[in-house]
UniProtKB/TrEMBL annotation:
GO terms for biological process: pantothenate biosynthetic process. This is 3-methyl-2-oxobutanoate hydroxymethyltransferase. The keyword Metal-binding applies. Residues 1-23 are annotated as: Disordered.
Amino acid sequence: MTHAVSPAREPAQAASPTLYGGTGTRRITVRDLTLAKERGEKWPMLTAYDAMTASVFDEAGIPVMLVGDSMGNCHLGYETTVPVTMDEMTLLSAAVVRGTSRALIIGDLPFGSYQEGAVQALRSATRLVKEAGVGAVKLEGGERSLAQTELIVQSGIPVMSHLGLTPQSVNAMGYRVQGRGDEAAHQLLRDAKAAQDAGAFAVVLELVPAELAAEVTRSLHIPTVGIGAGSECDAQVLVWTDMMGLTGGKMPKFVKQYANLRRTMGDAAKAFAEDVVGGTFPQAEHAFH
Ligand code: KIV
């Protein structure tokens, strides 16, 4: 008697061996980030606020994108991140998810969407996952956001925590390096441990002295993502409009500018205008007959 042999179960699609430069095509998950920390592998993260830009970064192999509330200053024309709403965050996060197929997309919880407490935080996080399709959310604060982090994580949504300079508190703390001095450094370490104990899968460290960021990185088993926090973090994030030279004005010291899109786009706009005014655009090849 012959037995029908059931085909071997398809192996789960192999994870890419590395986050950047890997060959895998499935979406990166938070587990991949945990494994990267175990391997001692560094990884890059960029912000993204629209589908087309996100698709460029996805094709370039950027493994993690943050739909940051920096969209307030960098995309929506606000002065700070404070006015960003859940509606704006949901709309733009959904666009970034649609524009990508491999990157893990993290949606920021905007100011006012989680500060009231854990239940409000869970409601906001759930909306970003269900309506926008993000794979994780980010919120500011360690000890002060403990209950929120715990409940969101327990409900099955991965949380990235954001420490150091937390721009949603700009009205209270301004924009300056955090964690200087013994007491502030100890508080940052306590916040990082609290975030990890509450179940956060990673911690952003913004504007923190490099030595302190290195100490936090060594003391956590989850990855640290630095922005103005030196070279010892497990990952680095930059706001895409800053590092591509699209943002106008003076850049903070921690930004490295990899392109000058502001000049490129301005030059292209002027060239177009001059062609139109001078009658050299359109030409015959641009016309229909
Ligand atoms: O909103 C944002 O872009 C951020 C990054 C700077 C980490 O929070």
